[in-house]
Design a protein that fits this description.
The protein contains eleven helices and seven strands.
Length: 269
């Protein structure tokens, strides 16, 4: 079975990467899966490829569930580069980053069902045992995830206009201007950072106002994330986070934060 694992390694790594959002974590998952395969009795396995997918899927699901919920503490980005976002290259794979942002909004079971079924054509009968659900429930989870992916808010203004809205957000954050933040955030704005999800413009503004105490620590570099404005913050020159903003009608409707260091290492040069 180890030989079969090596033949399937490229596909298994792609699955793990989509599940975890980081090639470094994907490699960790494959190493764990390899050890499990080495110890397992595989004499009665009829479909090695499907079984290996199950092993890797279960490892990734456990890793997603084990990610701790971190308090949202973000340095206030106070130094802006003069480059236009269209000229600033930050992410190595902007399409991959945009997909990662979407996938990070899903719960672990939803993410697994969606990734395995929609991206890798794994049958729901094979997905169900991974999440201790029936195939019908696995189908519902994938459907729910698909709807979230399809319904994710999309910007409806041009990039220069998005940039000005995000500048206003940064300025109000830097100055600790709560009402200024409320004014630039949609009343139903959503902020996501790992497992943390904050809903409501005023609530998001209340957390964002905490950025001010970090004002001397970070710099910001604007970038294009998919078709949205985003930026990278750095502390002592080292990438600390990526933030992506969805702007509609001159207000921010969604903010997504990536702070996982392994993900950042894969995305930021």
């Amino acid at each position: 079975m180890i030989a079969q694992f090596e033949q399937e390694r490229t596909r298994l790594r792609a699955i793990a990467h989509r599940m975890l959002g980081s090639f470094a974590e994907a490699d960790d998952a494959l190493q764990d899966a390899w050890l499990r395969v080495e110890r397992a009795d595989t004499s009665e396995i009829d479909n090695p490829a499907a079984w290996l997918t199950t092993v890797v899927g279960r490892v990734c699901l456990n890793m997603l569930r084990d990610r701790r919920e971190h308090a949202f503490e973000m340095p206030d980005p106070v130094i802006e580069t003069g480059e236009e976002p269209e000229q600033q290259a930050v992410a190595k794979d902007q399409v991959g980053l945009a997909m990662l942002i979407v996938l990070d909004s899903l719960k672990p079971d939803e993410r697994l069902a969606f990734v395995l079924h929609d991206l890798f054509a794994v049958p729901f009968d094979d997905i169900a045992p991974l999440i201790d659900k029936t195939p019908a429930t696995a189908r519902q989870l994938a459907s729910r995830a698909r709807k979230r992916v399809q319904d994710r808010p999309q910007p409806n203004v041009a990039l220069p206009q998005q940039r000005e809205v995000v500048r206003a957000f940064l300025r109000a954050s830097r100055e600790g201007d709560l009402e200024g933040l409320v004014a630039v955030l949609h009343p139903d704005a959503v902020l996501r950072a790992g497992d943390l999800r904050i809903v409501g413009g005023r609530t998001v503004a209340g957390r964002a106002s905490l950025f001010r105490k970090y004002a001397s620590m970070a710099a910001v570099e604007f970038a294009v994330v998919g078709d949205e404005i985003g930026f990278v913050t750095r502390v002592d020159g080292v990438p600390f986070s990526i933030m992506a903003f969805t702007v509609r009608d001159d207000r921010i409707v969604a903010i997504h934060v990536i702070q996982d260091q392994k993900q950042l290492a894969a995305l930021v040069p």
